[in-house]
Design a protein that fits this description.
Layout (H helix, E strand, L loop, with lengths): L2 H16 L4 H19 L11 H13 L4 H20 L26 H13 L6 H16 L3 H5 L6 E2 L4 E5 L5 E5 L2 H16 L18 H11 L10 H14 L4 H8 L4 H4 L7 H11 L5
Antiparallel strand pairs: 1-2, 2-3
């Protein structure tokens, strides 16, 4: 194995095991690193890839000329910075070189979310499709509910084990990015749905350490989960129909109903408040209500 391949392989393992990133994220980060290394070192397989601000700046200019969007460039640079941290963590270098460079500005876009009445319609439809002891219909229903009730990520959901959930405490222990654990409260409705699902799971003889799994007990595939949510949200007018749209909806609805943004940050597992502040927005209906209730001449 060449020096380049060895470090790429070690970085891949670091992202998967120590950082607990999803397979999709790991693939994207590794592809970014491969692209950067090839740009800087060409075909040389023996050089140890050591990022520098000078090389990173040149790479960013090249990416910009290649019509990459500012958001894509930010993500790619983030991948290289994560790799630089890995080099320190693994003991390859004692200290990381500063990688502070100027990046193109990203236009802030409000997160896409599903309106409450549409969420309610989807939940009703999924509930109506739950046939007695039919495992698959109850699995789809429970997966949708847990996304909306907890705001967890797709990778976090498929990793949930039986030890993650405490019915007596009404808590869900979630292992997020960077192996950071957080506790999410589980309300009465979700507790009932999970209990019902586990009952159906037992009746069907499905044995697994994973709470949500296919009939044979293996963990769910990310694409399968995505398709379930995408199909469920097909009856809505949401711009995006994905598990992440339900995460956005979870946070947006909490904020609209008066939740403290710092509490939302903890529930989402964000490392900084700036990541949570994108939810501090209002839809037009809420703006109309605020205007009507507060402006002296609104009537």
């Amino acid at each position: 194995m060449s020096t380049r391949s060895k470090y790429i392989a070690q970085f891949t393992e670091y992202l998967s095991v120590e950082r607990n990133y999803s397979s999709h994220t790991v693939k994207a980060y590794v592809q970014d690193l491969v692209s950067y290394v090839f740009f800087v070192y060409g075909d040389s397989e023996d050089a140890i890839p050591l990022p520098s601000a000078k090389d990173l700046r040149k790479w960013v200019r090249d990416l910009a000329l290649g019509d990459n969007s500012p958001k894509t460039i930010h993500r790619k640079v983030s991948s290289i910075r994560t790799y630089a941290k890995f080099l320190v963590t693994s003991g390859t270098v004692s200290t990381a070189k500063p990688l502070d460079i100027q990046l193109p500005k990203i236009k802030k876009r409000l997160p896409s979310f599903v309106k409450i009445k549409e969420i309610d319609a989807v939940i009703t439809e999924l509930a109506n499709k739950c046939l007695d002891d039919d495992y698959l219909s109850h699995l789809k229903y429970a997966v949708f509910l847990i996304f909306y009730h907890t705001g967890i990520r797709k990778s976090e959901l498929i990793s949930l084990t039986t030890s993650s959930y405490s019915e007596s405490k009404g808590e869900l222990r979630v292992l997020g990015k960077g192996n950071k654990e957080r506790i999410i409260p589980v309300g009465v409705e979700l507790k009932q749905v999970i209990s019902r699902f586990l009952e159906i799971k037992c009746r069907n003889g499905v044995e697994s350490d994973f709470i949500f799994c296919i009939f044979g007990g293996e963990r769910l595939k990310e694409k399968w989960v995505y398709n379930v949510i995408n199909n469920a949200l097909a009856i809505t007018f949401a711009d995006k129909k994905s598990p992440h749209a339900l995460r956005h909806s979870f946070a947006t609805h909490l904020l609209q109903n008066g939740a403290d943004i710092n509490a939302i940050k903890e529930l989402l597992g964000h490392s900084s408040l700036s990541a949570t502040q994108i939810y501090a927005h209002n839809d037009i209906d809420q703006l109309k209500r605020v205007y009507k209730d507060t402006h002296p001449f609104s009537d």
